[in-house]
Specification:
The chain is mainly α. It has 12 helices and no strands. The two termini are 26 Å apart.
Length: 236
């Protein structure tokens, strides 16, 4: 049993440890790509594809914003129970329909709805097996202050780190004495960089061959790389 488990654990540890390098490398590739697509010859070749994106943008612009808002909120709520929809898809969808400030606000509300649902689930039914395992490690449990109000700034950091499961963290904090409003505000604060950047990716998705679309993704990768460096530093 031990021989079967350790190679898998080591494999995951290797991926986590080197994921920041992957993020930075991919960011450099996209920076180079953003320069390539600005070249006149390349722009000329992409003109026909750009025209199709303009038609798609005009089609989506005709959507009823109120109906779109409720659909997106429903999808966030649906994801809190059935996590099959990637966050990036939800955030980009808002950016496709709404202008920048409203898209960010809609995504913030949707994210708050999702983490609130998981938080209340944890408060009502407990944290589940994953949280029980987490609590079984006394140093971690004490550091996270699971028996008190929860380590608030660790909550911000956990939202900042890309691969940490949102649902597990939400349910874990639901078992603490933290108040719902500070919990939601701190959760949104930690996730805000990614939330804003994905919103801008959606806003510029109809211009995929321009720096305005590529730059937010580059920043997102850099932010993710920094978050992974912080995580690895804390893990050592």
């Amino acid at each position: 049993m031990r021989k079967e488990i350790f190679p898998e654990v080591n494999k995951k540890s290797f991926i986590v440890k080197h994921s920041s390098k992957f993020c930075f490398a991919l960011a450099l590739i996209l920076i180079f790509t953003s320069y390539i697509v600005t070249l006149p010859a390349v722009q000329k070749s992409l003109a026909a594809i750009d025209a199709e994106f303009v038609n798609l943008e005009n089609f989506i612009a005709g959507f009823n914003h109120l109906i779109a808002f409720f659909i997106i909120m429903f999808l966030f709520l649906f994801k809190s129970f059935v996590p099959i929809i990637p966050f990036s898809v939800l955030f980009i969808s808002s950016g496709m329909v709404f202008p920048a400030p409203i898209a960010v606000l809609v995504n913030a509300l949707g994210f708050a709805l999702l983490v609130s649902t998981k938080f209340l689930w944890g408060r009502r039914f407990g944290g589940g097996k994953a949280v029980k395992v987490l609590k079984s490690y006394k140093p971690v449990s004490k550091f996270m202050d699971f028996e008190g109000t929860g380590n608030k700034w660790m909550l911000v950091l956990l939202r900042f780190i890309p691969f940490v499961p949102l649902g597990m963290v939400s349910r874990a904090y639901g078992t603490t004495e933290i108040k719902p409003l500070p919990y939601v505000c701190l959760s949104v604060l930690g996730f805000l960089p990614r939330l804003v950047l994905w919103s801008f990716v959606g806003i510029n998705i109809f211009d995929p061959f321009t720096p305005s679309f590529i730059v937010p993704i580059v920043i997102l990768l850099v932010v993710s790389g920094i978050a992974m460096l912080i995580y690895n530093a804390l893990s050592e």
